[in-house]
Amino acid sequence: MTKPLIIGVSGASGLIYTVRILKFLLAADYEVELVASRAAYMVWQAENRVRMPVESERQEDFWRVRAEESDRGKLRCHHWGDVGANIASGSFRTLGMIIIPCSMSTVAKIANGLSGDLIERAADVQIKEGRPLVVVPRETPFSLIHLRNLTTLAEAGVKIVPAIPAWYHHPQTIEDLVDFVVARTLDVLDIDCVPLKRWQGH
Questions:
Q1: What are phi and psi of 129, to 5 degrees?
Q2: Which residue, 39, 103, 124, 200, has fewest beta-carbon neighbours within 10 Å?
Q3: Per-residue pLDDT reduced to its tens digit, 67-106
Q4: How far is the C-alpha of 24 from the C-alpha of 191, rounded, in Å?
Q5: DSSP track, 87-149
Q6: Is residue 40 packed enough to be buried (19+ CB in 10 Å), middle (13-18) or exposed (0-12)?
Q7: Is the pLDDT of residue 159 over 70?
Q8: What's the rounded mean pLDDT across residues 46-50?
Q9: What is the pLDDT of residue 1?
Q10: Long-range pairs for 191-197 at CB < 8 Å and ≥24 separation?
């Protein structure tokens, strides 16, 4: 049986990345453990004019509706403050963790070993256990502080996949641009479930 994958959702702009990665993972029957930070609730309302439910038991339906995947895969949602959740322990085995999108605040806290909420604790667990951790920063421009914190994570083995799309696959929609980033993010974990026109050379 495939181990679950943790998806962290921080308070950075671009929550469409979360929706699209969930869509493809659930459609491919992956098991997902999802935790959204406190700030993510405010960003969702600002970007989509919809209130995200705080109760973890209601969040599954919330995300499934937006990902348009009502019954495939497995999805378990956690409250940001539940530091006693399964994903907060190294004994809970996973495929790794992706934080998408990842705010610079979350990058800074993880880089400095701070675990104030469940996203940060789960990320810290992946690093200490030597499991894959991928962060998808969504900020521009990067300050020197941002770059130093990202470098600290990279030196600890964390993979950095900035939300930078490409154009060689001739995107026609916003989803095409988002899906490129999602596919390249999942590539880091050797997960190939996004239909993407890959570069084949000249």
A1: -90, -5
A2: 200
A3: 999 889 999 999 999 999 999 999 999 999 999 999 999 9
A4: 10
A5: GGSTTS--SEEEEEEE-HHHHHHHHTT--SSHHHHHHHHHHHHT--EEEEE--SSPPHHHHHH
A6: buried
A7: yes
A8: 88
A9: 57
A10: 191/5, 191/25, 191/28, 191/30, 191/95, 193/24, 193/25, 193/27, 193/28, 193/30, 194/24, 196/169, 197/169, 197/170
Cα–Cα distance for residue pair 79/162, rounded to 1 Å: 26
Q: Write the single-letter amino acid at 94.
A: T
DSSP state of 4: P
Q: Are 7 and 87 in contact (CB under 8 A)?
A: no
- Output the pTM of the full model: 0.95
- Domains of the chain listed by start with CATH number: 5-187 (3.40.50.1950)
Dihedral pair phi/psi, residue 25, rounded to 5°:
-65, -45
Structure tokens at 168: 């060689």
Q: One-letter amino acid identity for 90?
A: G
For residue 23, the model assigns a pLDDT of: 96
- Structural contact between residues 37 and 161, judged by C-beta atoms closer than 8 angstroms: no
Structure tokens of 71? Answer: 């019954």
